[in-house]
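Tokens for Fe-containing alcohol dehydrogenase-like C-terminal domain-containing protein. Go.
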Amino acid sequence: ATQGGMAFSNASVCLVHGMSRPIGAHFHVPHGLSNAMLLPAVTAFSAPEAMTRYADCARAMGTAGELDTNDVAVEKLIDELSSLNHDLKVPSPKAYGIGDNKYFSLLETMAEQALASGSPANNPRVPNVEEIVAIYEAIWA
């Protein structure tokens, strides 16, 4: 935990953290869990603007090989993150028990709150409100 804190103190946090805060605030989901819910979808959203960096992560994790193209490596990374969530039984917001009416009625508010946090500005691909809403929709089920 200390090393993680030191790392993000230097590099800051990005879109996943900005989007997870409103989930926690509105639905009392623990911050780490909401981060996990979001990570595969946010990685898929972000990767087109930083393919080499995400591919390097996949290779460092052993998910992709040196001969894999960056596109293939990133696809493997996203698949691995999804598999990890499955193995760890990370629920979707719906499976966590969040009501669909409340969740969907708050999407734009949560997106605006995520942007206001400042974290999305550190992301390789900086989203707008509509793109954040689409990510929240994508992780629902």
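The mean pLDDT is 94.
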